[in-house]
Amino acid sequence: MGYSLEEVATFQKGFAFKSKDFIDKGTKLVKVSNLTDDSVNANECVNIDEGQAQNYNKYSLVKDDIIITTVGSWPTNPTSVVGKVVKVPDELNNSLLNQNAVRLRGNEKVVQNYLYYLLKSNDFKEYIIGTAQGSANQASITQKDIKSFKYEIPNKPLQKSIAHILTTLDEKIEVNNQINKNLETMVQAIFKQWFVTLNFLMKRENLTNLAVEKWLEVSLG
């Protein structure tokens, strides 16, 4: 059945917190600059006093909330593109949303994770870019445009199945990326050790090229 986003989700734009209130420890603020491709880098978030934060509960974020940037670049600069969609990680529960972004929470008509994947689709990306306005260096979209996006949404059991499959695939991709990252770190360490050791031996023993080849052959098994 076709719905507009306004019919299946609640919206809340971020607040323009003042930089003079930023401190080292407290309640984290999520800024557009903290967003990754799919999530938020909590280590880069600034903070405000926890007591002060209680005055801004309407801008709070919880796990699996969806954030869409309303100001950014055009698609030629994908890292900061307008309309970027991310999901709030567990570690940023009770954080607050800064300006130039909007928070979405699905209602009873839609599964939150299904809504997230719907908004990550090329259909939504193309729609957003088509509604964006601005200069050559900066683009912006309105809440009204986001709310007007329409899409066919299946029944909730099917939504749950689709969301589960896509979430499982994302988790496996993340595990594989972490394994590759760890392997790359190990390889760099091994090569560094080889060349540091080889350089030391060459200086101390004045090894010839043939000796170097033999040493590498033994080292590599």
Which characteristics define this entry?
single chain; about 220 residues; alpha+beta; Adenine-n6-DNA-methyltransferase TaqI, Chain A, domain 2; 2 domains; four-stranded antiparallel beta sheet; four-stranded mixed beta sheet
Question: What's this, in brief?
Answer:
The chain has 221 residues and is α+β, with helices and mostly antiparallel strands. The chain contains 7 helices and 13 strands.
Task: Provide a descriptive summary of the structure in words.
The chain has helices spanning 5-8, 50-53, 112-119, 122-131, 143-147, 156-205, 209-219; strands at 2-4, 9-13, 27-30, 46-48, 60-61, 66-69, 71-72, 85-87, 95-97, 101-106, 133-134, 139-140, 150-152. By secondary structure, the protein is an alpha+beta fold. The protein has two domains: 2-153, Adenine-n6-DNA-methyltransferase TaqI, Chain A, domain 2 (Alpha-Beta Complex), CATH 3.90.220; 155-221, no CATH class. The protein has a four-stranded antiparallel beta sheet. It has a four-stranded mixed beta sheet with strand order 4-3-9-5. Strands 7-12-11 form a three-stranded antiparallel beta sheet, with no helix packed on it. The chain is globular, with a radius of gyration of 24 Å. The mean pLDDT is 88.
